[in-house]
Write a structure and sequence with these properties.
Layout: H1 2-30, E1 35-37, H2 42-62, H3 69-93, E2 101-103, H4 121-135, H5 140-166
Antiparallel strand pairs: 1-2
Helix pairs in contact: 1-2, 2-5, 3-4, 4-5
C-alpha cells in the first residue's frame, strides 16, 4: 500500500504542475485578447479530480483492498500511458493549453500531435486514468464512481462548452492542429496579433465571459 500511496501522491504533484503551467498559459492568452468560457463548471471539475485522489487512498486503506498483479500491473501501465498522452497534448498546444476553456480569437484549430486523430485527446487520458489509477490497487468503487461522475461532467458540460468556444476560431487550414486537454487547439501565426488560446486540452482563450 505504501507504493500505491506514493503513486497517488505523485499524481497529485502532477496535477499541481498542470495548474502552474495553466496559470502561466492563461496569462499568455489573456495578454493576446483571450476570452474565458464555462468558468462555473471549473470548480466542480477541480473538486472531482481532487476527490478521485482522496477516494483512491481512502478505499485502499480503509477498505483493505488487495493488490492483484493480474489487474494491478496492466492498470499501472495504463496510468503511465494516460500521463504520457496528457503531456503530449500539453506539448502539442504549447502556451495555448490550459485547464480552463480560454480562446484567443483569430487562430485556426491545431491539428498536430494527438489532435491529428482525436478531437479531445486529453479527455481520453482523463477517462483512462480515472479507471486505471483506482484499479491499480483494486479500488473498484472509486473507479466506477469517478467514471460515472466524470462522464456526466465531460459529455454534458465540459466538451459542449469547449465545442461552442471553438466555433469562435477561424476555419482550420493545412498545417494547423487540434487542441490539448480534450478539445481543439489553435496554432499561433508568425505574428502574435490574435492567436488561439488555451484550455484543459483544447487551445482556447479570451477575456472572461460570465
Amino acid at each position: 500500500m505504501i507504493w500505491y500511496t506514493a503513486l497517488v501522491l505523485a499524481t497529485g504533484l502532477e496535477r499541481v504542475a498542470e495548474l502552474i503551467v495553466s496559470a502561466r498559459n492563461a496569462r499568455w492568452s489573456f495578454a493576446r485578447g483571450g476570452v474565458e468560457y464555462g468558468r462555473r463548471h471549473f470548480p466542480p471539475m477541480v473538486a472531482l479530480h481532487t476527490g478521485l485522489l482522496l477516494a483512491c487512498l481512502a478505499e485502499v486503506w480503509f477498505g483493505d483492498r488487495p493488490f492483484l498483479p493480474w489487474l494491478g500491473w496492466p492498470a499501472f501501465v495504463f496510468v503511465l500511458a494516460s500521463q504520457a498522452l496528457r503531456w503530449w497534448c500539453i506539448g502539442a498546444l504549447g502556451p495555448r493549453w490550459n485547464t480552463r476553456v480560454i480562446v484567443v480569437p483569430g487562430l485556426a484549430p491545431v491539428m498536430r500531435g494527438p489532435y491529428r486523430w482525436l478531437r479531445h485527446p486529453n479527455y481520453l487520458a482523463v477517462i483512462v486514468e480515472g479507471i486505471a489509477l483506482p484499479l491499480t490497487h483494486t479500488a473498484w468503487i472509486t473507479a466506477i464512481a469517478f467514471t460515472v461522475l466524470n462522464a456526466v461532467l465531460l459529455f454534458a458540460v465540459r466538451i459542449p462548452c469547449e465545442d461552442r468556444a471553438l466555433t469562435t476560431l477561424v476555419a482550420p487550414t493545412p498545417g494547423t492542429a487540434a487542441g490539448a486537454a480534450g478539445s481543439v487547439a489553435p496554432v499561433a501565426p508568425a505574428a502574435p496579433a490574435g492567436s488561439a488560446g488555451s484550455t484543459n486540452g483544447h487551445g482556447h482563450e479570451r477575456r472572461r465571459r460570465p
